Amino acid sequence: MNEFSKLSQKHIDELNQDGVLILPNLISEDLVHEIKADSSIWNKKISFNNRLSSLIIGSNQWIEHVGLCSLKALQLSLDLSLIDFLKKYFKSDPVIGSIAIQKKIFAEKGIPLHSDLGDGLSIFIYLTEPEKEKGITEFVKKSHETEIHENFKINTKVEDASYIDIKKSPFSTQDIMQTHGGLGTVVIFHRSIWHQLPKFSSAGREILMIQYFKKGSLAKDHLIKKSFLKMLTNSQKEVLIENSAAESSPSLVELGSNPDALGVYKIPGWKMLYYFLKYKLFSKVKNSL
Q1: Using CA atoms in the order 23, 24, 25, 31, what is the torsion angle rounded to 10 degrees?
Q2: Is 115 helix (H, G, I), strand (E, B) or coil?
Q3: Distance (Å, rounded) from C-alpha 101 to C-alpha 63?
Q4: Backbone angles phi, psi at 173, to 5 degrees
Q5: pTM (predicted TM-score)
Q6: What are the phi and psi torsion angles at 87 (to 5°)?
Q7: Are 134 and 203 in contact (CB under 8 A)?
Q8: Is 40 within 8 Å of 73 (Cβ atoms)?
Q9: Closest CA relative to residue 131, chosen from 167, 188, 182
Q10: Cβ–Cβ contacts within 10 Å for residue 84, how many?
Q11: pLDDT tens across the length of the chain (289 residues)
């Protein structure tokens, strides 16, 4: 597996300048189908315990322990060419902060323009084709280095990011860069870049989401099959395990939710129950039609 062999210094320069890199159809369709075959089994298992199954939170279905679900997805996130690229970008050894597969199970009103907390890079690998009706992430090019006055920011109940209304911000809709491409499209972006997910009408979008940080950063404590570990090289194990900080972020979830990777919010048990029952009800209605 060497899916990221096309990455070069030119891409690093573009990422530094624009804050986002969109690489259409980078991952082969065959590999995407293999990962989806793995995830489909887990998507059929739904409970409050993300160690044994997928997890429902809001409009999203999550597989948070990819190391138990898909060897191909794990190896892709640890592609040796990608690791070399990250070393050059960070000027440091990298570490995986988190890795998960997210599936949209309901239509959404969207997510306002926001900038994620923390440094590092996020990578979205589209396991379905990017389509407007199923939700595509949009980015404000070059905004990762823009200072935003507090007056522009929106107060939210969940402090997982900084939010603003683009109509009241220094940005223009002309600055927007849309995700584009087909199956296997890869989006690499600086976590501080301003981005949004506009309203979409259909469920079904599925993405492999990975966060990378510099060596010594906090990382989620992922569960991994011993047989999967045996298939990784020493350098891949370093990025997955050894390069992280001594302590780890909470990630072993049962009913309710521990704080996320940045420790900024907690989902109460009653809301998790509501998400679960909502999904079960809609699934029953859908299957009866």
Answers
A1: 40
A2: strand
A3: 5
A4: -60, -20
A5: 0.86
A6: -60, -40
A7: yes
A8: no
A9: 182
A10: 15
A11: 678 999 999 999 999 999 999 999 999 999 999 999 999 988 887 765 556 678 787 888 889 889 999 999 999 999 999 999 999 999 999 999 999 999 998 898 888 888 887 789 999 999 999 999 999 999 999 888 877 766 666 665 555 677 777 676 777 666 789 999 999 999 999 998 989 898 999 999 999 999 999 999 988 888 899 999 999 999 999 999 998 887 766 555 544 444 444 444 456 667 767 777 777 776 665 655 5
Report the SS3 class of residue 39.
helix
Domains and CATH numbers, the chain: 9-288 (2.60.120.620)
Instruction: Name beta bridge partners: 164.
Output: 113, 153
What is the CB neighbour count within 10 angstroms for residue 41? 12
Q: Which residues contact 5 (CB under 8 A, 6 or more apart)?
A: 81
* Residue bearing tokens 């969109």: 22
